[in-house]
Design goal:
By secondary structure, the chain is α+β, with helices and mostly antiparallel strands. It has one domain: 3-Layer(aba) Sandwich (Beta-lactamase). The protein is 34% helix and 19% strand. It contains ten helices and eleven strands. A five-stranded antiparallel sheet has the order 2-1-9-8-7, with helices on both faces. Strands 3-4 form a two-stranded antiparallel ribbon. Strand 5 and strand 6 form a beta hairpin. It is globular. The C terminus is likely disordered.
């Protein structure tokens, strides 16, 4: 079953998209950030939260919002088998590596987006929800962003792969994260999945805070050369749930450290003493990762910057630096 959209609504979206700006100046290495109370929307801290940035794979949060919306409207089901087009199969990594003519279920695509941040799976979803046209779906994403109050966000594709006109802000992404929690709590658990099996492979989640920061249970990473290292996180400690956004960090390590500091400060400001990070003994981490792996410390906790297949489960899945041009 493929969802359909009214002609009038689509024309409205096309007109809206025509007014999107051209390429914006970016500030790679300069961090934009925001922390809000997820329940009230109150801002606890911000820094250049309205500066327009490239979202990279944080784009997939809106792709998932649109997917959950279609599921709730019963225009698609989790078991729908979506065709893989040539266009989807040729998307740049990170990807599942699917061949044209094969199929991917809606639920597999959801899991591929929240764990591997697979660009080919995002494109398959975009084409399926957009009536065979990813560009049409991106226009619908922008329309939905405006409905949610994301005034400075424009989408051009379903994955977040580079496009000079695909921009957002830290504030807009906090609006989207809060909308996902508010509008689709029944699907939020997908963001906390640590791994998922796909064709005899186990795909781990890229989210660095899962299994490391107590109460962290979801949202998304993103990276391109121009966007820098991006992260949206949600964590609950006690009765307080926070949403944090970090955009444009110069490295995974600085992005993760910044997010941890922001969340700690946010919980403190909310009257909730931050809980300690999940601890891994230094000697154990060195034995597992070897002398050639850099170790970063925060509050006496080892943060390993390179992946090791022999790492403890929580550390292996939550703290792996993605190097080069990898988009996640």
């Amino acid at each position: 079953m493929r969802p359909s959209f009214s002609r009038a609504r689509f024309l409205c979206v096309v007109v809206l998209s025509m007014f999107a700006g051209t390429a914006r100046a970016q500030f790679t290495g300069h961090i934009s950030s925001l922390v809000i109370n997820a329940r009230t929307g109150g801002v606890l801290s911000e820094s250049d939260a309205d500066l327009e940035r490239y979202p990279a794979s944080l784009t997939k949060m809106m792709t998932l919002y649109m997917t959950f919306q279609a599921l709730e409207r019963s225009s698609i089901t989790l078991g729908d088998e979506m065709p893989v087009s040539i266009h989807a199969s040729t998307q740049a990594p990170s990807k599942l590596g699917m061949r044209p003519g094969t199929h991917l279920s809606v639920e597999q695509a959801i899991l591929a987006l929240v764990t591997k941040s697979a660009n080919d799976a995002a494109c398959v979803l975009g084409e399926y929800l957009g009536g065979g046209d990813e560009t049409r779906f991106a226009a619908l994403m922008t329309y939905q962003a405006r409905r949610l109050g994301m005034r400075h966000t424009t989408f051009r594709n379903a994955s977040g792969l580079p496009d000079p006109d695909q921009v957002t802000t830290a504030r807009d992404l906090s609006v989207l994260a809060r909308a996902l929690l508010r509008d689709f709590p029944q699907y939020y658990h997908y963001f906390g999945v640590r791994e998922f099996p796909f064709r005899r492979h186990i795909i781990p989640n890229h989210d660095p805070l899962l299994g490391l920061y107590q109460g962290a249970d979801g949202f998304k990473t993103g990276y391109t050369d121009l966007a820098g290292h991006n992260l949206v996180s949600s964590a609950q400690q006690g009765q307080v749930r926070l949403i944090g956004v970090v955009l444009g960090a110069p490295s995974n390590e600085s992005r993760n450290e910044t997010m941890i500091s922001l969340l700690d400060d946010g919980f403190s400001a909310s009257g909730q003493a931050p809980l300690p990070l999940v601890k891994r003994p230094v000697s154990y981490a060195m034995a597992r990762h070897g002398a050639g792996h850099r170790l970063h410390m925060r509050r006496g906790v080892v943060l390993v910057s390179y992946r090791s297949h022999g790492a403890p489960r929580g550390l292996h899945h939550s703290w792996a630096s993605r190097r080069g041009h990898h988009r996640s």
